[in-house]
From TrEMBL:
InterPro entries for this protein: Glycogen_synth (IPR008631)
Gene3D superfamilies associated with the record: Glycogen Phosphorylase B
Enzyme class: transferase
Organism whose genome encodes this protein: Panthera tigris altaica (Siberian tiger)
Protein name: Glycogen [starch] synthase
Name of the gene: GYS2
Length: 692
């Protein structure tokens, strides 16, 4: 029996140890299969990209990613090289000799993992034969008009072929393959049908049918046990995709998903309870200076203020230093992402600018928006020109030993230029609510809701709205900022999602020290409820969208935002410090232990005579929570979030708050990251050392 070294994990303070055995990675090959390897489509790309370094550090040259080949991605993200593993080299050569186009190299991200990429188009001539193979394996047929499903069948068939070639020459090494989502699932189905000697894991990040049902505004979570699954999938013309997904789930040795809420969904939708929940993490980088992230917030907030000055020119009758910036970002799913209830709470006593960063169909920038930025720049240039002339005259007068006459230091031309600049800021129309010309303006759900509730950026509106229907980019002529820079410059991210299997947007906010709103229907929200005794004190506002009505959820969100807007600047700084400290919980070095548990479990099921795992529970955090910060005054949780803090309470918190003491207490509550396995084949080479 092949066994690794004993590994004791004390995952969290005060908990019983989780005893497993360290994986003998030098005797294993690990493959992760996903359509989003080097191919950015959605959140799975973020999962794989951010996890790559931790996994590559653990597995070294025995870790490989499998994905589709796209020429542009290959040229910009992958450095081609020759496989050093004999089994991999033989598999690539064999498939290329049979007319496939298989590419091998290193993905140019942190960790530089090996990637194997299949050209789908070059193997499309095999489609009919592979459709027959899938039918024989699981009696699932794919209609000819579903281009995406056909591409996934080709991808899965190539994956199964590749794994067959690898296992034929693995030289005693055992193979683990993890397949992400239904797009990669056919590779798993065919591998099991052909009885390949591999240990398989299937991970669902969101069920197909669940996403469709939630998009239809159905009361999904209260009717999970009442859906006629086959009927619902058939009516939405995704029955064959659903069958591919469900077959993948039931063929896998181990089934995992990313959150407890998705585990409940998967058990009802896919008829199998997940074996392990593997929360999504991020690659967390800590600044050497503790408060550097606060400095970045100030820097990028100033750049957002510049954009706001231009967008609201002529109507800039509010103090930007006392204005809060809130945002919601993600796929344009109006209800699933919570944009509906976000808009419904539009009452505020302080000025709030709300950004919607959600890509939609547009045909160009809004002319009025571009004009606003041009006017702002013109005023800036005029102010600098006048300032230089003023400064020179002042300097000359002081050199002569005179105090200049302030009435004469600016001549008539200077005054005329300034008057013309002031006149240029006058506008007859209101500041636009969108930065682009929308193609479906009349039916767009965000714009329709804005019209219904009358948020048109009037002077009297304390909540201003800006819809930016395009991903942010530092090369944009309008708002030249990357997404990370923009997030750091905002005060609060608002993501009251109804359907969010994990929720990377609030997780990214947390890592950057920006408070956020999430829900108990998102994986991230459930994860934080489990780990943090008082999430609100740490800047994580969790709206209950599962056990109360939409109106009550909207009222709760309003209370959260009202309380946040009433905070003083110092209270927001304290809260950002606490938020940033939670980033340790989201580090892959901590969350990777869940993946390790899933891998050992699948080995023990696929090769029970060679790997043995005592019946243990997966790593757990039950009973553990980040404690309530001692500087937060004791009060009933309900009243704390529903009303702003009084000045007396603010003074009390300021007196109690000690950043170093709180930070040290929080550091003690999460132990050092899990010690990962040995890196095989000696020291891992750095990118650039491979000269093939």
């Amino acid at each position: 029996m092949l066994r690794g070294r004993s590994l004791s994990v004390t995952s969290l303070s005060g908990l019983p140890r989780w005893e497993v055995e360290e994986l003998p990675v030098e005797d294993l090959l690990l493959f992760e299969v996903a359509w989003e390897v080097t191919n950015k489509v959605g959140g799975i790309y973020t999962v794989i990209q951010t996890k790559a370094k931790t996994t590559a550090d653990e597995w070294g040259d025995n870790y490989f990613l499998i994905g589709p080949y796209f020429e542009h991605n290959m040229k910009t993200q992958v450095e081609r090289c020759e496989p050093i593993n004999d089994a991999i080299r033989r598999a690539v050569d064999t498939m290329n000799k049979h007319g496939c186009q298989v590419y091998f190299g290193r993905w140019l991200i942190e960790g530089s993992p090996y990637v194997v990429l299949f050209d789908i188009g070059s193997s499309a001539w095999n489609l009919d034969r592979w459709k027959g193979d899938l039918w024989e394996a699981c009696s699932v047929g794919i209609p000819y008009h579903d281009r995406e499903a056909n591409d996934m069948l080709i991808f899965g068939s190539l994956t199964a072929w590749f794994l067959k070639e690898v296992t034929d020459h693995a030289d005693g090494k055992h193979v683990i393959s993890q397949f992400h989502e239904w797009q990669a699932g056919t590779g798993l189905i065919l591998s099991r049908a052909r009885k390949l000697p591999i240990a398989t894991i299937f991970t669902t990040h969101a069920t197909l049918l669940g996403r469709y049902l939630c998009a239809a505004n159905i009361d999904f979570y209260n009717h999970l046990d009442k859906f006629d699954i086959d009927k619902e999938a058939g009516e939405r013309q995704i029955y064959h995709r659903y069958c591919m997904e469900r077959a993948s789930v039931h063929c896998a040795h181990v089934f995992t998903t990313v959150s407890e809420i998705t585990a409940i969904e998967a058990e009802h939708m896919l008829k199998r309870k997940p074996d392990v929940v593997t929360p999504n993490g991020l690659s967390v980088k800590k600044f050497s200076a503790v408060h550097e992230f606060q400095n970045l917030h100030a820097t990028y907030k100033a750049r957002i203020q510049d954009f706001v000055r231009g967008h609201f020119y002529g109507h800039l009758d509010f103090d930007l230093e006392k204005t809060l910036f809130l945002f919601i970002a993600g796929r344009y799913e109006f209800s699933n992402k919570g944009a509906d209830i976000f808009l419904e709470m539009h009452k505020s006593d302080v000025t709030v600018v709300v950004f919607f960063i959600m890509p939609a169909k547009t045909n160009n920038f809004n002319v009025e928006t571009l004009k606003g930025q041009a006017v702002r720049k013109q005023l800036w240039d005029i102010a600098h020109s006048v300032k230089e002339k003023f400064g020179k005259k002042l300097y000359d007068a002081l050199l002569r030993g005179e105090i200049p006459d302030m009435n004469n230091i600016l001549d008539r031309d200077d005054v005329t230029v300034m008057k013309r600049a002031i006149f240029s800021t006058q506008r007859q129309s209101l500041p636009p609510v969108t930065t682009h010309n929308m193609i479906d303006d009349s039916t767009d759900p965000i714009l329709s809701t804005i019209r219904r509730i009358g948020l048109f950026n009037n002077r009297t509106d304390r909540v201003k709205v800006i819809l930016h229907p395009e991903f942010l980019s530092s090369t944009s002529p309008l708002l030249p900022m990357d997404y990370e820079e923009f997030v750091r410059g905002c005060h609060l991210g608002v993501f009251p999602s109804y359907y969010e299997p994990w929720g990377y947007t609030p997780a990214e906010c947390t890592v950057m020290g920006i408070p956020s709103v999430t829900t108990n229907l998102s994986g991230f929200g459930c994860f934080m409820q489990e780990h943090v005794a008082d999430p609100t004190a740490y800047g994580i506002y969790i709206v209950d969208r599962r056990f109360q009505s939409p109106d009550d959820s909207c009222n709760q969100l309003t209370q959260f935002l009202y309380g946040f807007c009433k905070q003083s600047r110092r209270q927001r700084i304290i809260q950002r410090n606490r938020t940033e400290r939670l980033s340790d919980l989201l580090d892959w070095r901590y969350l990777g232990r869940y993946y390790q548990h899933a891998r050992y479990l699948t080995l023990s099921r696929a090769f029970p005579d060679k790997f043995h795992m005592e019946p243990t529970s997966p790593p757990t955090t039950e009973g553990f929570k980040y404690p309530r910060p001692s500087s937060v005054p004791p009060s009933p949780s309900g009243s704390q979030v529903s009303s702003p803090q009084s000045s007396d309470v603010e003074d009390e918190e300021d007196e109690r708050y000690n950043e170093e003491e709180e930070a040290e207490r929080d550091r003690l509550n999460i132990k050092s990251p899990l010690s990962l396995g040995r890196v095989p084949r000696g020291k891992k080479k750095l990118h650039g050392e491979y000269k093939n």
